[in-house]
Design a protein that fits this description.
Layout: E1 3-7, E2 10-12, E3 18-25, E4 33-39, E5 46-52, E6 57-59, E7 67-72, E8 77-82, E9 91-98, E10 102-104, E11 108-112
Length: 114
């Protein structure tokens, strides 16, 4: 059974940086889709960044140029580097690996506040 463990969330001041990690276990790391979603308080979950094994990368417009998604197949880890963070980035962030299957992490809280 695939298990995803996220880490790296926390409290950061506006303009600061965080790096989220999502470590996978329980299967081969052959997912064609890697993504990070977030759910701000009182809002719907939204796709923040996506990476596919055929080289496709996409970002939510509001994070483009500030966030970077990457993947390390050797360590079975997906990362989200977040720079120049803003209060509106505050949310619970979720890792998603899919195709095959559809697997989610438990979520990690990110709070951007002074």
């Amino acid at each position: 059974q695939v298990q995803l463990v996220e880490s790296g969330g926390g409290l950061v001041q506006p303009g600061g940086s965080l790096r989220l990690s999502c470590s996978a276990s329980g299967s081969d790391f052959n997912f064609r889709f890697s993504g990070w979603y977030r759910q701000p308080p009182g809002k719907r979950r939204e796709l923040v960044a996506a990476l596919t094994t055929n080289g496709g990368i996409s970002y939510l417009n509001s994070v483009s140029g500030r966030f970077t998604i990457s993947r390390d197949n050797d360590t079975k880890t997906v990362y989200l580097q977040m720079n120049n963070m803003k209060p509106e980035d505050t949310a619970v962030y979720y890792c998603n690996l899919a195709d095959p299957g559809d697997h989610w992490g438990q979520g990690t809280q990110v709070t951007v506040s002074s």
